[in-house]
Structures are given as C-alpha cells and as structure tokens.
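Hey, resending since the last one bounced:
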Amino acid sequence: MKDNSENICIKCGFCCDGTMFNYAIITENEPLETGYSFETSLNKQRSFRLPCKYLQDKVCSIYNQRPYTVCESFRCKLLRSVISDNVSYTDAIKTINEVLALKMKIELQLLEHHPENAGDALPGIMKEFKAHFGSTVSDIEFRKKYGRILLDFFLLNKILNKSFITGHKKKGLS
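The structure tokens again:
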C-alpha cells in the first residue's frame, strides 16, 4: 500500500461504517472475539454487524490487532485503483467526498422522516425502506414523499458499485 499520505482508507471507512455492507463474514476457524455484534447469516455463515464499533473517525481503532481475515484482506475497488496508479489520489478523494455528501444528504432525509432510525447503518435502513416502498409503489403520496430519497439512494449505490464494491461476497462482506 502507498504511504499514509495516499491511504484513502483514512478518508473513507465505508467498508466498516455500514455504507457499503451490513455485515462482515468470519471464517469458521476464526474464534469469536468479544465486543462484536455477532449473528449467523441466512446461508449459515458467522458474521458481525456493521458498522464496526472499533471504527472511530473513519479509522480502525484496533488496526494493528484486527482479529478477522476480512478486516485485514479487504481492499475496495477504489483503493486498488489508487495502489495500481489507475486512479490518482486526488480523484479518489473527490469520489469519497461525493459519496460522503450524498450519504449525508440521504441520512438527513431519512432522519427527517424517521428519527427513530438515527445511528442505524444506511444499508439496513434502506433495505427496510425499499421493502416498504415495494409494497406501496403505486401509492402516489408515498412516492411524492420519498421519491427523492430513493433517487439519491439509487445514485449512491451506482457510485459505490462503480468505484468501491467488487467481489465483496467473495471477500466476506455483504
């Protein structure tokens, strides 16, 4: 990895804060450490919930003692592009800032409509929101009220998929 001055991870944290994924999968041979919120996924894989409680100000507070392979091995598409010099550090930071702004916009819109979800990870909130939207898609009032959030979330997912997410299920994140 490039030196810390070009480490985009300290500007981002999307892989650990719940922006990109709801949980991280733990391999069978890894012991369960205290302090994580564990669960078993539908396909019987052990995982811990994101956002990770050890993420503080976009940086892992236990970076040198990360207990899980997924935490050590994951490299998003954007980081790999910076490392391979396919994307400049400056352009990567612009992309991160674009996602941060869009994420904040969505979170503020959701908080306005559903203050009880404050502090929940964005993918989980949007999963519930989209499930509700699917059952009320023909409701014009619902679309008027929430259409902007859905559009912004669609744009956020498009950017995340284009610039950050690649092979994440194979890497132990979902």
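The mean pLDDT is 81.

Sorry for the duplicate.
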